[in-house]
Amino acid sequence: MNRIATRTPLSEAQEDYLKQVLLLGGGGEGGRLEDALPVSTQSLADQMQVRPASVTGMLKKLAELGLVDYEAYRGVRLTRAGYQIALEVLRHHRLIEAYLHQALGYGWEEVHAEAEKLEHHISEAFEQRIAEWLGHPTHDPHGDAIPSAALELPPSSPSHRLTGLAPGASGRVARVATQDQDSLNLLAHLGLKPGAPVQLLEHTLEGSRVWVGQERYLLPNSLAQVLWVRLQGDPDER
What we know:
Blueprint (H helix, E strand, L loop, with lengths): L11 H13 L16 H8 L3 H13 L3 E3 L5 E3 L1 H24 L7 H8 L5 H11 L25 E2 L8 E7 L4 H9 L7 E7 L3 E6 L2 E6 H4 L2 E5 L7
Antiparallel strand pairs: 1-2, 3-8, 4-5, 4-8, 5-6, 6-7
Helix pairs in contact: 1-2, 1-4, 2-3, 4-5, 4-6
């Protein structure tokens, strides 16, 4: 990681915290830094699987570096400098996911764990080669946006969580918002990957009933809530 200069080289853990603040604050899917929500210490602790006291210590260090704005009990936001670093880590991560999936045949349920290990270590030259080989993709295998080489997120297209749609709505899967391997395996088995056509039939207490191609399924709530759909007629339907 060397595109964004800082006074002190950052550790992998510090880069991970910046990335998670970006994702938890809603800034990783086409949103602007100005629109990101403050992230609580407890949310970060849950995501990073560490004690809240450890999160507080890390946020204080990042604040001293000018990478976050942090105030106890009011959450944390990225500064412009922290936002740029977080976008760079996210670009590495999602490009690696796409490369592993398309070039090396990894399943979409496998790529996240590998990318977590590699995202801090690839050079900018290697990043550029990957992007060129892939044809400069804008989204990874899960439908998540890939920041550009200029560290800008592609314009977001309207999409809607499946659980929030009205019965009868139809469109295509835009994004699958989970990295759980079992969930991704099941969704792939059902044909529910980005680009797949889907129609919502009804919501029930047990989940959401859908048509996928010629098949009808009752998706449990845990799966239905991670599916984002681009409706027919929405701009840039993929």
